[in-house]
Amino acid sequence: MQKTKYFQLNKPQLSDFANIEEAINPSMDIIDTKLKELSDGKIDANSGAIADINMPPAWVEQIIVSDLNQIEAKRSIKGILSALIAGLRYVHNYFKSTKIVQLRANMFNGTAPYVARIDIAGIKAGDTPIISHKLQDGLTDIGTIKGAWKAYSCIDKIETYDGYMLVKCFRKKPQQDIWLMAKGG
């Protein structure tokens, strides 16, 4: 069994009989470590070192994963590698996707709990995006920044649905328009 050039992943040849536990599991540990480094910013997400894997056509089936539940047990090494690569591409693209949305104070209903709906193209009910605040570029006014932080602190819960999310404030209604970043989805 050969090893890959960069990450020393196990690379079964067409003539090899590969035991999944011995051939694939050590490679999965290496891939897991590299994905952790990617998420921690230790490697460049734009280089495509993990997501843009090029393998010989004999080894890879063209599989596109749009939901991680599509990765199932495969009977062949080719099927396993194809599903693994497609899954890595899906996860990589999922977390590269960042959407910036405006949350207007007048979007909330008038009584507690205060709820506002924000339409976000591509978000699904099962998604769990990372939501954070976003100050406008070039914003330096201390009063506006302080008001934005007060508005951010009002947010108690965010629920995702197909095509939109609900921002819920149980304690207090935001008094200022703010921007949110949704990473993933």
Would you write up a description of this structure?
- It is built from four helices and eight strands, in the order ββαααβββαβββ.
- The chain is an alpha+beta fold and 185 residues long.
- The chain folds into two domains: 2-96, no CATH class; 99-183.
- Strands 3-8-5 form a three-stranded antiparallel beta sheet. A three-stranded antiparallel beta sheet has the order 4-7-6, with no helix packed on it. A two-stranded antiparallel sheet has the order 1-2.
Outline:
The protein has 185 residues and is α+β, with helices and mostly antiparallel strands. Helices cover 28% and strands 21% of the residues.
Give a topology summary.
Blueprint: E1 2-3, E2 10-11, H1 20-23, H2 25-39, H3 77-96, E3 98-103, E4 114-119, E5 130-134, H4 142-153, E6 157-161, E7 164-169, E8 178-183
Antiparallel strand pairs: 1-2, 3-8, 4-7, 5-8, 6-7
* Structure classification: alpha+beta
Biggest β-sheet: strands ordered side by side in the sheet: 3-8-5
Proportion of β residues? 15-25%
Mean pLDDT across all amino acids:
78
Largest sheet: 3 strands, antiparallel
Q: What integer value in Å does the Rg equal?
A: 22 Å
Coarse shape? elongated
Distance from first to last alpha carbon: 37 Å
Helix content: 25-40%
Domain count? 2
H/E series, N to C?
Answer: EEHHHEEEHEEE
Number of helices: 4
How many E strands? 8
Poorly predicted residue ranges: none
